[in-house]
Design brief:
The protein is an all-alpha fold and about 100 residues long. The protein has helices at about 5-35, 45-75, 75-95. The chain is elongated, with a radius of gyration of 17 Å.
Length: about 100
C-alpha cells in the first residue's frame, strides 16, 4: 500500500525551500570561517555564530529527514515507519549536548 500521494508535493516543496535556506546558511558560515582562518575579523558576531551552528545542525537534519520521508511515502507503510524511527533518532541525537558535528 502506497501512502502519502497528496502530501508528497507539500513535503517536496518544504524540503526544497529548506534545502535552499540550508545551502545559503552553509555558504555564509563557510565564508565567515574562511575570513577568520586568514586572521581577518568575521562578519558574524560570536554569540550569533553559536546560534547559527545550532541552526545548521537542525537544518541539515530537517532537509535530510524530509527527503527521506518523501522517499518512504512513495513506498509502503513499513518503510515509512522505519523512516520515522530513523528521523526521530537523528533529532534526539542532535538535541544531545556535545553530539553536534564539529563541536
Amino acid at each position: 500500500m502506497i501512502i502519502g500521494r497528496p502530501i508528497e508535493k507539500v513535503i517536496d516543496f518544504i524540503g526544497e525551500f529548506l534545502a535552499m535556506g540550508t545551502v545559503i546558511l552553509l555558504i555564509v558560515m563557510y565564508i565567515n570561517s574562511l575570513l577568520m582562518s586568514k586572521g581577518l575579523p568575521g562578519f558574524i558576531p560570536a554569540d550569533k555564530l553559536d546560534f547559527m551552528k545550532s541552526l545548521r545542525e537542525y537544518a541539515i537534519v530537517a532537509v535530510v529527514g524530509l527527503k527521506a520521508l518523501e522517499f518512504a511515502l512513495k513506498r509502503n507503510v513499513i518503510l515509512a515507519i522505519i523512516c520515522f524511527a530513523i528521523i526521530a533518532a537523528a533529532v534526539i541525537l542532535v538535541m544531545l549536548p556535545g553530539a553536534a558535528l564539529g563541536a
